[in-house]
Amino acid sequence: MSRLKLGIISFAFGFSGLALAADHAVDIKDYTFVPQTITISVGDTITWTNREKRQYHSVWFEESGEPETDYFFPDDEYQRSFDEAGEFHYRCGPHPEMTGTVIVK
After folding, report:
1. How far apart are CA 57 and CA 95, in angstroms?
2. If we measure between CA atoms, which residue out of 24, 67, 71 comes closest to residue 50?
3. How are strands ordered across the β-sheet holding 45-50?
4. In angstroms, rounded to a whole number, what is the distance separating the alpha carbons of residues 1 and 29?
5. Per the count of CB atoms within 10 A, which of 39, 40, 84, 86 is most buried?
6. Which pTM value belongs to this model?
7. What is the b/e burial string over 69-105, where b = at least 16 CB atoms within 10 angstroms of the residue's CB?
8. Residue 36 three-state SS
9. Which candidate, 72, 67, 65, 70, places its Cα nearest to that of 28?
10. How does residue 2 score in pLDDT terms, banded at 50, 70 and 90?
11. What is the pLDDT of residues 50-91, one digit of tens each?
12. Residue 11 to residues 4, 15, 17, 33, 46: CA-CA distances in angstroms?
């Protein structure tokens, strides 16, 4: 196989993985988002899972003008994809001291 063909094939395979979106996890436990700050790529999805034993929570991107999510209870999840770069701050609606940040690159 010629070097040119190998180069084209390597180039194509090297960039094919960049378009794939990834899934990330944030746990909610002890009234904390874990991790509190997460860095992801454009197109990625985060799933927040409530790991508390009895408490409900929400994920609210209030600064962005978005409505508060429905409350979710122990072992429930909330999922969101991020389609643009930026820094997105959020908090728990019922527990405003619980805050987190999503950095999308």
Report:
1. 8
2. 71
3. 32-34, 23-29, 45-50, 77-81
4. 55
5. 40
6. 0.81
7. beebeeeeebebebeeeeebebbbbeeeebebebebe
8. coil
9. 72
10. very low
11. 999 999 999 999 999 999 999 999 999 999 999 999 999 999
12. 10, 6, 11, 39, 29
Strands 23-29 and 45-50: parallel
Q: Are strands 45-50 and 86-91 parallel, antiparallel or unpaired?
A: unpaired
Token pair 């209030």 is at which residue?
A: 62
Strand, coil or helix: what is 72? strand
Tokens (6 digits) for 59: 């994920």
Neighbours of 8 (CB within 10 A): 11
Examine the pLDDT at 7 and tell me if it is beyond 50: no
* Helix residue ranges per DSSP H, 2-102: 3-16
What is the strand order of the sheet 86-91 is part of?
Answer: 37-40, 99-104, 86-91
Q: Is the dihedral of CA 90, 53, 48, 79 positive or negative?
A: negative
Instruction: Yes or no: say if 89 and 33 are a contact pair by the CB < 8 Å rule.
Output: no
**Left if phi > 0, otherwise alpha if psi is -120 to 50, otherwise beta: which for 73?**
beta
